Amino acid sequence: MSIPAIVWLVVAMITTVAIAAVLIGLVRHVKVLGRALGRFLREVDPLVREISALGEEAAARSERASVRAKKIESARKR
Fold first, then answer.
1. What is the pLDDT of residues 28-73, one digit of tens each?
2. HEC string of the chain?
3. How far is Cα 51 from Cα 5, in angstroms, rounded to an integer?
4. What is the pTM of this model?
């Protein structure tokens, strides 16, 4: 084997090892992010449910007020 071929082979092997190390690091970070996201969702879920319930309650209250306003408006027209 010639010297340039050996150099290219060594460079290719070093590059392969470096890419493998980067991929291993990326997989570890994806796992950490997944766990963090799961924990975040568990902590936020009760607040989301509470806000959703309050929003539904406000929508119902708004609907009742709208009906009441329409009744008052129709009573004034008579």
1. 999 999 999 999 999 999 999 999 999 999 999 999 988 888 888 8
2. CCHHHHHHHHHHHHHHHHHHHHHHHHHHHHHHHHHHHHHHHHHHHHHHHHHHHHHHHHHHHHHHHHHHHHHHHHHHHC
3. 66
4. 0.58
